[in-house]
Amino acid sequence: MSSKKPSGRRRATTRRRVPTATRPQALTLAAFLVVASLLAGYLALSRPDDTTPAGSAGKKPAAAPKPARTPEWDGRTRVIGDGSTSYTGPQKGQLKPEPLKPGEKPPQFVVFSWDGALEGSDHLFSHYRELAKQYDAHMTFFLTGIYLLPKTKKSMYHGPMHSAGDAAIDYATDDHIRTTLQQLTKAYDDGNEIGTHFNGHFCDAKGGGDWSVEQWKSEIDQFFSFVQHWKTNTGFKDLPPLPFDVKKEVVGGRAPCLEGQPNLLKAIKSYGWRYDASSPGDFQIWPKKKNGIWDFPLQMLPYENGKYQGLSMDFNFLYNQSEGETQGDPAKFPEWEQQTVDSYMAGFNRVYYGSRAPLFVGNHFEDWNGGIYMKSIDQVVKNVCTKKGVKCVSFKELTDWLDVQKPQTLTALRTLDPAQSPDWSTVVK
């Protein structure tokens, strides 16, 4: 291991080295995410925008699997189990997936996703739910399962490799469990996706990267149990059931600290999940599948006017700007906020005027550096979701769209460099 703290800038290296964080405030995630921002070396995104395609058609892909046909809904709400969840029919307001016509330019998809999905005292869950509604957008909210488990019942959670009740994050207060349940209902009714951020948020040693397939399955099963039995666990009798069957609704997630994807992918196939957003980072290219599951990584964006590439997540901006200090120099906040907005917009513009590869943004509900990363997202949503040809969607909606495209079209799209604007008649046939 290197003892030198990373700068977040490019290195000419072919091996990924995990540096040692020098302060507790930097957290283990900092090292992981910043290393992810280094994985590219001097590859495609450091080249001029008019380079030849970096992608490769590779082997001929198998035809995309078709989602199982859902029986026609009879219009009746079906309460499930102890009344914590219910089935209220197909989710309303979803994007209708249609294959591209020959020569048609793809939509510019943008996915805003949130890890944790707790409605705390800052009311950020409700803020982004309302912002999405205002701009005709859908977002993905990755719920942490223990946020629905009272602290007095924490011994019910057995994180893999950890003692009963242990977690790397705080349990929610009873009031915040209640407000989170309310926001989950409203978010689903608004057309947003509910995914999973699993439970204990363990990283590094004994975290997801060390878990077996069976241990990941245990974590998933416990997530489902906490959502399916919140009424029993909390004793709340005055709230209605969540308006979805969680085992049908959840079709993907993001692992804490982006760790453990290889075994996680093996685990989730048995649950019928369709995508995973746990990859540590990749270029802004059209998605592909890993082990039959759509892979939606965080993405490399131009930081500081393109001096280097960094990940599309608030934590990576934090680490590069204030070295992991969650409240750095207030005098720098305006500059850092503008840098963050500029990086997101540079990444967006690169593909919007280029390959039209989807843009993935992954954030947390936080107040780091005076809340500048939340303010940045506010600006980006307003700037991009209103543009012609842009569809701000959930990961599930994007998955639906990808699954109805011709395999040869997706193969051709993956040959495009991010900033490459092709003659679409040569790509979409």
From TrEMBL:
Disordered as annotated region, ranges: 1-23, 48-106
Highest taxon above the source species: Bacteria
Amino acid composition bias (Basic and acidic residues), ranges on this chain: 69-79
Listed Basic residues bias regions: 1-18
Classification via SUPFAM superfamilies: Glycoside hydrolase/deacetylase (SSF88713)
GO BP annotations, alphabetical order: carbohydrate metabolic process
Residue stretches of biased makeup (Low complexity): 53-67
InterPro entries in alphabetical order: CE4, Glyco_hydro/deAcase_b/a-brl
Record protein name field: Secreted protein
Organism: Streptomyces lucensis JCM 4490
